[in-house]
Amino acid sequence: MKLIAGLGNPGKKYDKTKHNTGFMALDHYLNKNNLNLDKDKFDGLWTKQKINGEDVIFLEPQTFMNDSGKSIAQVANFFKIAPEDILVIHDDMDMPIGKIRIRANGKSGGHNGIKSIMACLGTNNFNRLKIGIRHPQKESVVSWVLSPFNDEQQKLMNTAFEVSENVINDFIKGKNAQYLMNQYN
To answer: For 33-133, where are the alpha helices, taking DSSP H only?
Structure first.
């Protein structure tokens, strides 16, 4: 069984903001595959699907970014999903807008959602699909991550979401982190 979680903040006011990149990437995948998050439990919106013979849970925690681990750990514990079978999709300010990077484990890189997941799972050995949103140049970090993409940036993100769809499909097919890193980094 696989768990694929997109990170973001719940509520309309955060819908198109940079910090909701994980939600947007997951929503792109779900829309392309005619799927929806039809359950509300484990402090998140989720669905369970069978894809290529694999049970897959798609999750968007509704706990706000800094407490994302609470929701992910509840799902992982309930369904007995090993950390290496978890893929977390999130924004990354240390990469250019739209750049994709896969990581199999590691530190949080200062990302509070990842810190929360590490604390709640008790490990850093879960997979990450990081999508660049770049560091702000003239505004505060909070203002930057809570602002929407402009048209030019959105085009780059749309390309990243297309690539993310391929990453998710390969992850579901059982491709390991090393394969994903070699293929997409």
So the answer is: 68-79, 112-121
- Residues 113, 131: Cα–Cα separation, whole Å: 14
**Which letter does DSSP use for residue 162 in this model?**
H
pLDDT computed for residue 107 by the predictor = 87
Interval 47-82: pLDDT, tens: 999 999 999 999 999 999 999 999 999 999 999 999
Assess contact for 17 and 147: CB atoms under 8 A.
yes
- pLDDT tens per residue, range 78-114: 999 999 999 999 999 999 999 999 999 888 888 999 9
90 is catalytic: no
CA angle 6, 130, 13 (to 5 degrees): 45
**Domains defined along the chain, listed by start:** 2-184 (3.40.50.1470)
CA distances in angstroms from 47 to 20, 55, 56, listed in the order given: 19, 10, 8
Q: Is the pTM of this model over 0.85?
A: yes
3-state secondary structure of 38: coil
Query: If phi over 0 gives left and psi between -120 and 50 gives alpha, with beta otherwise, what is residue 43?
Result: left
How are beta strands 127-132 and 100-103 bridged, if at all? antiparallel
